[in-house]
Amino acid sequence: MAILVTGGTGKTGTRLAQLLLAAGHSVYVTTRSVDKVQSPLKGVKFDWLDSSTKDAPFKAAAANNEQIEAVYLVGPPIADMASVLNPFIDLAIEKGVKRFVLLSASQVTKGQPPMGVVQEYLDTLKADYCTLRPSWFHENFLVPHNFRPLVNEDQIVSAAEDGRIPWISSDDIADAAFNALTSEQIEERDLLVVGPELLTYEQIAAMFTEVLGRKISFKRVSQEGMSQHLLQHEFHPGVTEMLSALDLIVATGGEEAIYKLENKYVGKRTLLDFIRANKEAWIR
């Protein structure tokens, strides 16, 4: 089966593409830099915000006498995601795509922007689809606003207080996406993707302390303090407000609550294993 992975050079897309290849599928990967894609993956130059590229994956498949039957959807980081994904979904159905797997987020429900609006559209089309709603990624500890304080100040900064998060590995998200794309039928259209344990930032700081061999502290800040922290690490003001608000959701039990729901896929990889595997990243 020919499968299209959008965001194919991203955290989950890279891992998913390799799983699909190993299972014998023909895999098309969209990217703005085709030279990043190595054979036997098939790279396709594509940009969500450039409408002239939206049919490129289907042209590439046709040139190989193939038809794309399933698509992994990872939208661009814009507020009105539906404005670019929904027309693409229409085109994909016209070209013969039979299944969609949409990457969303744990706190985004159907109808909520940005990804939930796309989910709602897939629902109205009565498409064969699954929405994956992962909790917070292990890999977040490698992005600047977490990585720099860890390395330079021996701190983890958050407004999440003692809220607990079921941290999830990108590899586990890729496993869930693989299952949704390739199974005979989708059993759950709205699937939460969570890690195997709930952790506070105090517990995570203790893990880093153990692995790195130096004291790592959890710096508690207010929601406004978190916004300022994010601004210092070059986040756009609108994004800082959204991310600091997510900390408040964690602080009030929002992420712990999703862990208790039934419609979930529970990953097997732990955050401690991730920290151990990536130890060199935080050594100064």
Automatic annotation (TrEMBL):
Pathway annotation: Alkaloid biosynthesis; ergot alkaloid biosynthesis
Source organism superkingdom: Eukaryota
Classification via Pfam families: NmrA
GO biological process: indole alkaloid biosynthetic process
Keywords for this protein: Alkaloid metabolism, Oxidoreductase
Domain NmrA-like: 3-231
A Gene Ontology molecular function term of the record: oxidoreductase activity
PANTHER family: PRESTALK A DIFFERENTIATION PROTEIN A (PTHR43162:SF1), PTHR43162
NCBIfam families: ergot_EASG
Family per record: Belongs to the fgaFS/easG family.
Record protein name field: NmrA-like domain-containing protein
Species of the source: Pleurotus ostreatus (strain PC15) (Oyster mushroom)
